[in-house]
Amino acid sequence: MRDRFGRTINYMRISVTDRCNLRCRYCMPDGITKCAMQEILTYEEIVEIAQAAEDCGITRFKITGGEPLVRMGVETLVRALKDLPLTEQVTMTTNGVLLEEKLPALMEAGLDAVNISLDTTDREKYRQITGRDCLQQVLSAIRASAEAGIRTKINAVLIPGCNEDSFLPLVQMGSELPVDVRFIELMPIGEGRSGREMDNRALIDRLNTLYPGTTPDPEPRGNGPAVYYAVPGFAGRIGFISAIHGKFCDSCNRVRLTSTGFLKQCLCFEDGADLRAIVRSGEETGRRSLLTEAIRSAASNKPEAHSFDRPELITEKHRMSGIGG
Ligand code: SAM
Ligand code: SF4
User: Going by CATH, does the domain composed of 11-322 fall within 3.50.50.60?
Assistant: First the structure.
């Protein structure tokens, strides 16, 4: 479907939990989650919403959280979404801690690709950033995932004065393994408001200086706004998602379903539609068209752009863990 600005909306991020096994500094440093289990959508409810989303032309789904792999049986959701008639793609974003043990079941269920969040390759720094000593598990999962042949990306958020020196070691992970390494600018959402983002334009300059012969790679590599570069001799690509210094709202293709069933129109604002109220009401036969109508209306009325450059206009109060990134 197209929204009122003519943008194609075909992608839904689905958060399946607001809980997590890590405590990342710019996401959920104290690990607080107030949500009771009965407030969280069941897998059946999520699938019912996804079916209605497909009626609206939304055919690509990303499972996220909190940490999606802490929710039991998430592979059954992958399978159920894959089985919907119009699904083009089901992918996941995870911190990678539980990924290696879950990988066979996820692949068996048909997962198309996985994004793994990793902000440093230094063990002590990883522990400081995430609150846990799990770096080896994550590195091992990245290798296992790439070797299993599933499309694998690493997402890193660099913060000046914290982990900016992790840029080169993270870039080098794309040298040996066929994984794309992407650098995401910190957004002023939740705990991100207290941090300072790295300017991706400076990182691109550093990449070009470190690796002469680096060239832009215009080939699309997913659903997102990343801009990619090919480094000579590298198995993977290096990508940059520059929400602050390279605003890409004019090509935004997504809506976000929170774990409590709220359909968000934009990361920056709290507006959207309460789909849980619909999916928990009335007869199933009547619900499908109500859901379709609500999704179409919310998606077509997405705001034109975020206001990260004008913090006073940001209305979203939740943390990134409650939104799904
Ligand atoms: N637990 C999963 C993970 O870590 O990939 C999925 C959810 S997590 C909220 C999704 C992504 O959002 C992570 O890559 C995380 O680094 C990123 N993130 C969290 N807060 C952010 C912020 N303020 N700005 C940009 N990215 C942020
Ligand atoms: Fe958990 Fe992901 Fe947030 Fe880290 S970024 S606390 S792994 S949800």
Answer: no
